[in-house]
Amino acid sequence: MKRKDSSKSGMRNRPSVYQGSASPKVKWTGKVERLAWGGLGVGREEDGRLILLSAPLALFPGEEVEAEVRWKARHGEGDVLRWMTSDPRRVATTCPVARLCGGCDLWESGAHASELKKLMVEDLLRRQLPDTTEWAWHPAPPEARRHRIQLHWAGRTLGFHRRRSHSIVPVQACPVAHSVLSDAIPRLREALEEGALPSRPQRWELATGTPANLVFAVMEDGRSWQLEPDGWHPSTQPIVHTFRGDSLRHRAGGFFQVSPPWAMEAFRQTFETWDVRGNTLFDLYGGVGLFSVLLRDRFKDAVLVESEPHAVAWARQNLESLNIPGACHASDASEWITAGLGQTEDVILVDPPRIGLSPGFTELLRTAKTGTLILVGCDGAAFCRDIKRLAPEWRLEKLAVLDLFPMTPHVEFVGLLKPC
């Protein structure tokens, strides 16, 4: 399973869009014409040149903003400094560090965050996959919260990375995290200050299961502690996610979906709507077995391939505990796959890392003999690139886009492809 960390500091602390440019900054005032992939607003200079705008808060099409822009050969890139006019749908943020923290980009969008993200997806698909006229959009429910957050301890301060910086923004709570994690932040800070936990500067992860109850704090070296009424205690217990009676386990600190209850339901809805079923499921980059478990009643056999040692060990246990027939292979999927994989009644499901499929892996997928290929991707640009590379052997027949990452521009693409 891909290492697509959308927890509080991981992938949202992206660099400035004009980082490294030597051109001077100039002030620009104008209208946001539309939203582009990645959460950028698109403006236009009087001479027609486009401007890509990054903002600490959500942008709505039609708003007039003042930005600091650096010009390149054919376009400008810049940061919004202030709003001259605001969309009436904009609401006051509930996060006191919204303008500073690098973890979220859609504060002040209120109930319209998923609506804005859909506009970004539409812009990407219109440019990259113009023949894709129909696709299903799965907006995040209001109750979706993060079950993993990463905080940074600097010796005296615990918080999230400041936007485009490694300095720390101190926090007492996190409104996009599940309440059990948010409430645990002061407990973690107190334990670090008192020396009850190793206090050298480093990254810490707070994580909980499904349903959210037990809270784990995990150091960079993988050691974990469980929060109990009297404080933090060393623990080797796994994190458990239960969905429709089935449970998956993984080590504390190991990768899993950032908003598990919603992610599991969104994938289930998608596979059920598409009636995904067959003989053997080839679950490539399978992690701890999420997709093999969700599809357990739709296949006779499962073959899971995962390179991360801890994940594949837990995948074996998860499949065995649920009596799912199959095999788990500890290998890089791009090295495990062979030409001509599968039969017509089989399905290949590929959930690659954020960068997408390697060229060599793509070529081998083009030779596959299965009747269905399902491609999952959390980076839209990489997903569209891979869909185009898989042609002409595979055509995109169905597409679903899942809003799995609250308060960020990130979404999950799920494509069902059939042989041409």
Please name the defining characteristics of this protein.
single chain, 420 residues, alpha+beta, Rossmann fold, eight-stranded mixed β-sheet, seven-stranded antiparallel β-sheet, 8 helices, 23 strands, globular, disordered N terminus
Overview of the structural elements:
- The chain has 420 residues and is α+β, with helices and mostly antiparallel strands.
- Among the domains are: 175 residues, Vaccinia Virus protein VP39 (Rossmann fold), CATH 3.40.50; 96 residues.
- It is 21% helix and 31% strand.
- It has 8 helices and 23 strands.
- Strands 7-22-23-21-20-17-18-19 form an 8-stranded mixed beta sheet, with helices on both faces.
- A hairpin with a 2-residue loop joins strand 13 and strand 14.
- The longest helix has 16 residues.
- The protein is globular.
- The chain starts with 24 loop residues before the first strand and ends with a strand.
- The N terminus is likely disordered.
